[in-house]
Design a protein that fits this description.
535 residues, mainly beta, 2 helices
């Protein structure tokens, strides 16, 4: 006799607490009273002929026990697959095969399923595997093919070969004959059939536990479960009314004009160019009417005077334009006495420029005198060196205006002096008054918590995995905050069997994560999840 084993092609649990959730990737198969059942199916495409099969056993490994009892094994009557089965979509239950007693964890249990196996070999479409249901209050957890710790998935163990018949009656011993010559060694006979397995003896006492072996490397992470459908979006809260616009503040007073900067020092006078010949005097044109004077702009700070350029050669005098009409004369100012002209002496050196005194009031323009005949212009002597400019005397009253002489040609323009420094800016005016502030916007209503919630109340009846919104400071001891925290799989094995790693696998071996609804809780409230359901 010899055997053959088949591992599962599909295995999964379903939970009435989560009727739309698929647990096909869970490392455990949960069979727990009132909430969960498990399905397991095998691919028998390589199974031996039915005629050669003498016995088939379904073998399961018990990983953990919440409540000892029995598991009922039945055939499944409809099609299903590991990746899509849920409590809502599960197929029906067929013929009952039998029950398996479960007394503790970390052991194998088995049941004879030969009849089901023979039926499936005769009609492969009827092979939809087995469904495992708890009997009474039984709550056990079996290894699935995705187990990452013990890795003892369900198996079909097939025994092939005929059953050995009973032993014949032993005949009486005949007399011993003489020893004959030793014959040649005959060919080895065929191996006899293995006798049937005897009844298992009682289990011996458990030996002292050996030291814990080194932790094996973590198995690959199982496929992520299907994402649940999104909840409907809550209605958008009404927008707060916009605050009234503040009134515009009054315009500040204009700042006072900055003080006039000090006058820059006068640059040295450039050497005088040679005087050009005087052109013929053109006829004097009539004087044009004097336009109205514009308003005087604010005086900027005087820049320093650049050096005077040399005087260019005088060009020929152009014809004088016609004189515009004379505007009305102002009242004549007093005429100063004319002194006898002295001979022109050589120009002395220029003295330093004195400070400019404040301008005197402009006197009324005197009446224009008649223009005298122009005398012949004498030859210009060579220009002497310019003496230092003496201090400027007080301006005397304006004399009578003589007739206008012929305009000489314009000399070339000297280089422009450097621009004087800009005067200081005036002070800024005062700011206008600030308008009233608009109303504050709406404060958010979710995710803020300033209350020290704590576990401490007596346990209450609840459905495993149920989530409630709590406002009490002290909450029942069989609830935990739904805040995404990792918890021990062994301590909360019942909860693990219904939610698995849907909200996080923890460390992948000993822990798993609770759902995280912190940001969805209204301010100063707390979402809780039922982790133990009291009997």
């Amino acid at each position: 006799m010899f055997g053959q084993s088949f591992g599962p092609s599909d295995d999964a649990s379903v939970s009435s607490a989560f009727p739309a959730v698929n647990f096909g990737s869970s490392p455990l198969l949960s069979v727990s009273a009132g909430s969960t059942r498990a399905f397991v199916k095998f691919n028998l495409s390589s199974a031996p002929a039915a005629s050669s099969v003498s016995k088939v056993s379904l073998v399961l490994f018990v990983n953990a026990v919440g409540a000892a009892g029995s598991i009922q094994v039945s055939e499944v009557s409809g099609s299903w697959s590991e990746g899509s089965i849920t409590y809502s979509s599960q197929p029906g239950t067929g013929a009952i095969v039998g029950t398996i007693p479960v007394t503790g964890a970390d052991q194998y249990v088995s049941i004879d399923v030969t009849a089901s196996f023979q039926k499936w070999l005769a009609n492969s479409s009827s092979n939809q595997g087995f469904v495992l249901d708890p009997v009474g209050s039984t709550a056990v957890y079996l290894d699935s093919k995705e187990s990452v710790t013990t890795s003892h998935a369900a198996q079909l163990q097939v025994v092939q070969g005929g059953v050995q018949g009973p032993a014949g009656v032993t005949g009486s011993t005949g007399p011993t004959g003489s020893v004959g010559a030793t014959g040649a060694t005959g060919a080895a006979g065929a191996t006899g059939l293995t006798g049937s397995t005897g009844v298992a003896g009682s289990t011996g006492a458990t030996g002292i536990a050996g030291p814990t072996g080194a932790t094996g490397s973590a198995g690959s992470t199982g496929a992520t479960g299907a994402t649940g459908s999104n909840g409907t979006t809550g209605a958008t809260g009404a927008s707060g009314a916009a605050g009234a616009a503040g009134s515009t503040g009054a315009t500040g007073l204009a700042g006072s004009t900055g003080a006039t900067g000090q006058a820059g020092t006068t640059g040295a006078t450039g050497a005088a160019g040679a005087a050009g010949s005087t052109g013929a005097t053109g006829l004097a044109g009539s004087t044009g009417a004097t336009g109205p004077a514009g308003s005087t702009g604010a005086t900027g700070a005087a820049g320093s005077t650049g050096p005077a350029g040399s005087t260019g050669v005088a060009g020929a005098t152009g014809a004088a334009g016609s004189t515009g009409a004379t505007g009305p004369s102002g009242n004549p100012g007093p005429v100063g006495a004319t002194g006898t002209p002295g001979s022109t002496g050589s120009v002395g050196p220029s003295g330093p420029t004195g400070l400019t005194g404040p301008p005197g009031a402009t006197g009324a323009t005197g009446a224009a005198g008649s223009t005298g005949a122009a005398g012949a212009t004498g030859a210009s002597g060579a220009a002497g060196t310019t003496g230092a400019q003496g201090p400027t005397g007080v301006a005397g009253p304006a004399g009578v205006t003589g007739s206008t002489g012929r305009t000489g040609s314009t000399g070339s323009t000297g280089p422009a002096g450097a621009t004087g420094a800009t005067g200081l800016n005036g002070n800024n005016g005062t700011n206008g008054a600030t308008g009233p502030a608009g109303p504050s916007g709406t404060v958010g209503i979710l995710g803020s918590n300033s209350i020290g919630f704590r576990q401490g109340g007596s346990p209450v009846s609840c459905t495993l995995g149920q989530i409630i919104l709590n406002a009490a400071v002290s909450y029942p001891s069989n609830y935990l905050p739904a805040d995404g925290s990792p918890v021990l799989r062994a301590q909360y094995s019942a909860l693990f069997s219904v939610i698995g790693t849907n909200y996080g696998a923890g460390d992948g071996i000993t822990t798993f994560n609770l759902p995280n609804l912190t940001a969805a809780a209204p301010n100063n409230t707390l979402y809780l999840i039922c982790v133990n359901s009291p009997e």
